[in-house]
Prior knowledge:
This protein is of the alpha+beta class. 68% of the residues lie in helices and 9% in strands. The protein has a domain at 278-310 and 359-465.
Amino acid sequence: xxxxxxxxxxxxxxxxxxxxxxxxxxxxxxxxxxxxxxxxxxxxxxxxxxxxxxxxxxxxxxxxxxxxxxxxxxxxxxxxxxxxxxxxxxxxxxxxxxxxxxxxxxxxxxxxxxxxxxxxxxxxxxxxxxxxxxxxxxxxxxxxxxxxxxxxxxxxxxxxxxxxxxxxxxxxxxxxxxxxxxxxxxxxxxxxxxxxxxxxxxxxxxxxxxxxxxxxxxxxxxxxxxxxxxxxxxxxxxxxxxxxxxxxxxxxxxxxxxxxxxxxxxxxxxxxxxxxxxxxxxxxxxxxxxxxxxxxxxxxxxxxxxxxxxxxxxxxxxxxxxxxxxxxxxxxxxxxxxxxxxxxxxxxxxxxxxxxxxxxxxxxxxxxxxxxxxxxxxxxxxxxxxxxxxxxxxxxxxxxxxxxxxxxxxxxxxxxxxxxxxxxxxxxxxxxxxxxxxxxxxxxxxxxxxxxxxxxxxxxxxxxxxxxxxxxxxxxxxxxxxxxxxxx
Length: 488
């Protein structure tokens, strides 16, 4: 038999290599999320939380209910804050960060050694015949030699996961902001169409009375009646679009059950007196875009992996084996025991695989990452220019409708009313001018909505987290195209 002392001493060497378990996994998780929270606060000035237990979940839920209760109707900043606290997809992104933190922590640990025991010999315990007991401990020496590079790669991936979680956070904030703008604009359009409906109803009722007296032909009456029917259909479509826009906002905020009973304002905020000047928006975007930083880290991680492949191209597996062999002989009731330490080295001879294929794959992966980074830099500058151009131009368009088109339509309606009172024009000319004014107001509301959407896209263009392409932004604008009305 082998004494317990020898077993303990045999196990001591690999355990010393493997190191001790510490609280690094927890600290890495916390440090990773703190970085995400700080980046979010610097851009959005909002709080975000990583919910990891029931107490945290209850605290976040109570905070959401408090925000909903004290903010009526729901403003855009409160909507964004609720989304950052309550969006479950965001919590999944934070869990991915924790997973990557655990990987980074695991990379700092040595490979567990393998311990093996065996016996050889003949006879039975009663006969006490010749018997040999062997023990062997193996560990991967290649993993020891490349450990610092493995740790560096894992740490790069961890930092990349931090930035990815920050991008996801900013994306939820930007999507929520756009959804709020779309929902409010949609209900504002509903309100305008309802006013147009009232005008159309008055015209239709008047046409019916004039038809009874014979003062209006049936064709003219039909034109007024069909206009009423068309307005009713447009109002119904606008109301549906407004409900769907509000549902999009609800999904992003993660609300359900009794939380669904919230209201959005009747109309969007008025245009600001002036627009912000961003003469250096391209430089700001290149300096601050988090997704560009993620691409840089991807190139860094690929470069480190490439260096690791180059260092290990000729050796696919290398192990150092340490152990002991114990022989025990019993002859004439006399026991003889001999223990011999052993050290062996094992590695695969690269007869067929010289590592060239792996080197080629590493080179191609590096060039791919480099070109993706270059493309991202070009796109970031273009997206920044486009975002500011849309912001500046939509402001001019919205201001044009507010300052020129709508006042002119109001003037036309006012003059039409004067001529009607003077019995120069008839009722239907007055109603037509009123309808034209309402249509111009609808165009003005949509122009104001487009400006606020463009304003909401400025921060994502500079910091990241915006729509991935122009079509996505167009879909957001289209979804919120026709609607508006408070208390919804």
